[in-house]
Model the fold of this input.
Amino acid sequence: MVDKLSLRIRIFLFFAALAGGVLIAIGAGFFAAMRRVTDPDVINVLVIQDFISGFLGLGIIAWVWFLFDIHVAKAIEGLAGAIRARAHADVDGEIDRDHARYLGDLAPAASAAVMTLAETRNALAESVARETTRIANDKLKLEALLSDVPLAVLLCTGRHHLAFYNGVAQEVLDAGKAHLGLDRNLFDFLRDGPVRQAHARLMKTDSPDAATEFICTTQTGNRRLAARMRLVGEGTPEAPCYVLTLRDVTAELALHGRQEALLNEVFERVRPPVAALQTARTALNGEAGAVETLVPALESLTGTIDELGERFEATRTDGWPLAPVRSEDLAARLARRLSARGLTSEQVADPLTLRCNAFDVVALMEHLGRRVDAALGGAALSVAVRRDAPGASLHLGWQGAAVGEGDLASWLEEPLDEGDSSL
Done:
């Protein structure tokens, strides 16, 4: 309770206790003398003496308290208030030393400390202003440099919030009501599955220069983006920041798709007539000499088509923006999409690292799995990724009747449902 009292009150209580002690001492001396003296005249002299001693003692104590209160207690409180004002407010004046002249070297020491604090505060403010200006200039230079980069560049925090982006990113990701802005969630613009998985893969690596590539899509689904992610040295070990570069490959993928479909159609339409000619030549062998003249040309045509077909199969993935993915991750993604549709499946995968468009592959196999389940009524599905030199094969199996070629062809002609953001 005493700690809550002001300094002046505590000093007053101290002197009050001292005055009370003096009165008690005088009273104790008076009663001790009364027990030994019986003469009334002497008793009267003792009473007068004790009254005079008491009043003089109280007067001296009151006078000392008054001087102590004015020149010490009040001065200390004033000095404390001046220090507090200069510590929390913008006060530049020196402390008035006249009010604290009885405190010895305390006032000059406090004044020197306050001046040092003010100088340090000003130096810190100037340093912060310089660094802020430098950072702003660096930011403008970085924006000017990145404005000429044809790729979308984003700096994201470990919580996947935007900390920086260039103008190309704004053009690529702005869509509908969601407009790019600082501290916006990246997943307001991109589907989160590929980004989270790439971030998790990089956090498991020990190399600070490691980077990973993948394919992602915008939330609206109308853009396909080839992405490259690299961790940067800021953030927390649990959620480091990262730089994400994006390239719009929507038109490129569409062009590759049309070209591949055209070449595939050429081989599919040419091979049956050539096979029919081979069959006819075999049936007419030896019956007409004119047929024999067609044999070299027919064999040459057959060999040319087979060679071109092999070259087409070997190079059909060239130019596609393929990203590396582990076979276990590919099988797990497909199993998750099937599970999201209420379908159970078992997955087995050889330990492989594949280069493929995992998004489209998983979407296609999930589409076929749903069609098989609908056709066979709750078939138990299985997913397997097997080594198939020089590449790999993805198998979708089930227990039940086989699917006809006509049904499979019609399923492949249907549009894919790519709305799942878990890829």
Confidence is low (pLDDT under 50) at residues 419-423.
